[in-house]
Amino acid sequence: MFDALAKGFRNAKNRLAGLTELDEKNIDAALREVRLSLLEADVDLGVTKSFLAAVKQTALGQTLQTTVKHGGQTHKITAGDQFVKICHDELVARMQNDGQPIKWADKGPTGIMMVGLQGSGKTTSCAKLARLLQKDAKKVLLVAADMQRPAAVEQLKVLGQQLDIPVFNMPASPLEICARGWEEAKKLGYDAVIFDTAGRLAIDEALMEELSSIKSAVQPSDIFFVVDAMIGQDAVRTARAFHDRLAFDGVIMTKLDGDARGGAALSVKTITGAPVVFVGLGETTDKFEEFRADGMASRILGMGDVVGLMKDFEEVIDQKKAEEDALRMLQGEFTLEDFLNQVRMIKSMGSLNELVDKMPGMAGMIPPGANLDDRELDKVEAIICSMTRAEKADPYVIIREPGRADRIAKGSARKPEEVQALLQQFLMMKQMMDSLSQQGGMLSSLLGSLPGGKQLQMARALKKMGGAGGGMPGMPGMGFPGMFPGMGMPGMSMPGMGAPKPSMTKMKPLSEAEKNAAKRKRKAEREARKRARK
Questions:
Q1: What's the pLDDT score for residue 206?
Q2: pLDDT one-digit tens code per residue, 223-233
Q3: CATH H-level, domain 317-508: superfamily
Q4: Exposed/middle/buried for 180, CB within 10 Å: 0-12, 13-18, 19+?
């Protein structure tokens, strides 16, 4: 997501590399790169011109610092840093929502009317928004008033059933359905009513008349325009037409996890005056979140989004279990079972591309052509699930006895080479995490914000003092440091990255006594499995 935008800002910063101050000449050179990326990302031409003019005016019209003090140290500020900061502030200003995403009614239910073209994801967004409000302990009623699209009512009923949220519908006109649904919500004491209205393949007068009459009848607190982010500048033109007739309050942008180039997110508020309030990032109902302008601006500039990343972690992490795992791992207990749990946690958080976008500095490290494949995580899960408990606890036994790798490969429908590659990645992850545990600065502050992170900070301090902290073989609930080759987590193919130390994967030959002991152990494991099956 936003690759085209991020590339332009990255190139602009590179043009300013080595410079200590901004002047008109080097600003113009940097802005040429930004202009190309904005137009390539389908940002409206007028919005592009005004954005570039605002950045240039700010850069030339203020005295810029060359140093800044932080944590008792003085840091040098480059021209590239100054330029990025100006761009970040301007991006935030153009996307910022100054109020609350939903204007809650002082008395009675709050009406939320969803409008948009057919195929924009309106019905699914109704269910996603209802789930988000449900998590805030709100009692929500869904009103299915899209009587034009076949199966639209049934779709909303299925989604409502999945979420245990009631859906109101009756054989009548959309206007009467909404009016009766509104009365039902007031009578039963609902906190919010979400109206799913009909869309069209294109804007027409009949559609607008129907929506205008529904608006007059139920007088919703908010009208949200749902738009597919993948349609580029068409999204802005469509938004303008709807806003002229309905004066909607906010925009819900869907499919931002797809091939969206990001132009609509930058353009829609400038064109209509209505900000983006929510974004859809996937097909399931949990992939929906409040839009944060600062987080989006940071991601566009390749700076990641730590706040968004922490929110993702909070969705899937059990705080108590994470802290227990941290204490256990501080003793050096990090197994393939722990690795598997991290893989599953990452899968539940969404796509690898989304996670990498939110990780500070990571987006710029990925070269063109690099492959982030979520299916690699499925392969990892299949391989580890084909291992015995003893093999998960001690992966070196698989390296010492190649026959085990063959058996695991057959059980997971993979190749023995893939099993060996996974083992090397896992061992490299242990090595890398131990190395990271000795670093300070930004890592220390990041650890402090993670579940179990305070225990990890203590371990780092103990290790520096020569104590028995035992290193940091893995961060519980935090699998992203290993998402890259040579760092532990499959899913990204980049040649030339690190590999584990030879000493980690080359084991000395076993003696006869050790071989016999291993055979006895395997036999005992087989007999235990047979007994378990009986």
A1: 83
A2: 999 988 777 67
A3: Signal recognition particle, SRP54 subunit, M-domain (1.10.260.30)
A4: middle
